[in-house]
Design a protein that fits this description.
By secondary structure, this protein is mainly α. It has helices spanning 2-13, 31-40, 47-54, 61-79, 91-111, 115-131, 135-151, 155-188, 194-205, 211-227, 231-247, 254-270, 274-287, 295-310, 314-325, 335-353, 370-376, 389-401, 405-422, 429-443, 448-454, 456-463, 483-492.
């Protein structure tokens, strides 16, 4: 069912109505159309839903499997009739789809013995593939042309295509090497020989500067710099890569630019260069201003929200929150993203509660209940990387602000267990320090001065460490609010009395 759902999503998005589409030669009562429409309208979310609706009499499993296969074949055929002249496609995408379609047609023609038309189409497609740096398509077309001119005993053209084939073989091998190392880093960074990878890629970069190779080379350099807390170096890599992408006018890739701007924002946040960080996010949002409600948009809005909190622009953060949280498509996003914005909501309500934000009357903030928030977020016992530490902390902040010290003790005990089980000093040092600071509060009987004395050594270590990134693949999650700033709010919620609880 998942394969069909993705194909239907692509085709329904582009409103496909062409040759070999679903309605060609089919009656309106066709089960094939019923299955397509059911998936398109989200009536059928699972195979069981579709089977029960289309074959209510039972025993229709075999017929349903055949129906799915027929639908998938029609959908795949229809992919080739997507209208790429619509505004949704940029120049690069149009070129890619045209080249891919022509390349497939070239191979089919050559396979059927239509030598002349296959060569003519290959030559025409080769010009576009080279211009837009589609290396794999370029190489395959060159190999075909080299074979054809060799058969025709055309030595001059053979030499031309042979030299180009060697050139693009070298480029493709470099691209495959960079792609391999990028994927290995995503799979298991800790066990990668990153220094050796970078050494090899640096040597290759002296001879190869294709878009795909450089793309992956920079991704690896940025990822490594961030993983090793080299934020100045990561920022340099991001800026160099952005300039590289902008210099390749025919191959500009929004996805790569989004990656770079978002990681540039992260570097600037770590370095407390908030103006540059905000500019990076705003540039990224410009790239997808026609894509509100997509995963990329929600993620960038989160980055914007974070940098506003870090730079103490709390009212701007409130504005961003409402523009994002009230978007009708948030509820259909993946669960981790929804939970991120529920956590943002909790922090926003906390700042309102302690008077750091004066609510803007034009925004309607729903009534926040801590108990409901706890039930809506994931189970912390499953979070073995510490990425959800912000969720644990906000609960304690609320309880301290409400003077519910008995509840604080209960939560702190759970936090202590969580800390000892899941947080390691090597990649969650700041979280570890901050949690140990929170653990001192009940030990000091909630007395402000006593707490300050007990946390001194942890606070010094915290202040000497950089902001923390959640150690997850492709994650740029950081502290929603720097722990130093959060600690000021914690201390502000305490008084100079000793609270001895039973």
């Amino acid at each position: 069912m998942e394969n069909l759902k993705e194909l239907v999503l692509i085709l329904s998005k582009h409103k496909i109505k062409a040759v070999e589409t679903l309605n060609t030669g089919l009656p309106k009562s066709s089960k094939l159309l019923a299955l397509y429409n059911g998936i398109c309208d989200k009536k059928f979310l699972t195979d069981e839903d579709a089977l029960e609706n289309l074959y209510p009499e039972g025993n229709g499993k075999m017929a349903y499997d055949k129906l799915k296969s027929r639908l998938q074949n029609r959908l795949i055929n229809t992919i080739f009739f997507i209208d790429i002249n619509k505004p949704a496609f940029n120049e690069y995408q149009k070129a890619y789809y045209n080249c891919s379609k022509n390349w497939a047609a070239t191979r089919v023609l050559a396979g059927r013995g239509a030598s002349s038309p296959s060569v003519a189409l290959a030559k025409k497609t080769l010009v576009i593939a080279q211009k837009y740096e589609f290396t794999q398509i370029t190489l395959d077309l060159l190999r075909l042309l080299r074979s054809k001119v060799a058969f025709l005993k055309n030595s001059k053209e053979f030499m031309t295509y042979n030299e180009l084939t060697r050139k693009y073989t070298k480029i493709l091998n470099a691209e495959l090497k960079a792609e391999e190392y990028k994927n290995m880093l995503m799979l298991d960074y800790e066990n990668c020989d990153i220094e050796q990878y970078l050494k090899e890629l640096e040597e290759l970069s002296r001879e190869v500067n294709s878009y795909n190779f450089t793309f992956d080379h920079y991704r690896i350099k940025v990822t490594h710099a961030l993983k090793t807390d080299q934020y100045v170096q990561a920022k340099i890599h991001c800026k160099e890569a952005i300039e590289f992408v902008k210099s390749r006018t025919h191959t500009q890739n929004k996805t790569f630019l989004l990656f770079l701007y978002q990681h540039l924002m992260l570097c600037c946040t770590q370095l407390k260069e908030y103006t540059q960080g905000r500019e990076a996010v705003e540039e990224a949002l410009k790239l997808i201003e026609d894509q509100k409600g997509t995963n990329n948009w929600f993620t960038l809005q989160h980055s914007f929200f974070i940098i506003c909190l870090h730079s103490n622009q709390l009212n701007k953060a409130e504005e961003i929150f409402h523009a994002t949280y009230n978007h009708p498509r948030l509820g259909s996003m993946y669960q981790e993203l929804i939970e991120t914005w529920k956590t943002n909501e909790a922090y926003l309500n906390f700042f309102i509660k302690i008077g750091k934000i004066k609510p803007n009357p034009k925004f309607q903030l729903r009534k926040f209940r801590l108990s409901k928030f706890v039930n809506e977020v994931p189970k912390f016992s499953n979070d073995k990387r510490g990425a959800n530490i912000n969720i644990l902390i906000i609960q304690i902040l609320f309880l301290l602000q409400q003077k519910k010290y008995d509840n604080v003790i209960d939560r702190v005990e759970s936090l202590n267990m969580y800390c000892s089980r899941y947080l390691r000093n090597d990649d969650t040092l700041r979280s570890n320090c901050f949690i140990k600071m929170l653990l001192q509060i009940p030990k000091a009987h909630f007395n402000k001065m006593a707490v300050e004395r007990k946390v001194r050594r942890y606070k010094e270590k915290l202040l000497s460490s950089p902001l923390e990134i959640a150690k997850q693949t492709n994650s740029i999650e950081i502290e929603i609010i720097p722990y130093e700033q959060l600690w000021d709010y914690v201390i502000g919620s305490l008084d100079n009395k000793f609270h001895y609880l039973k």
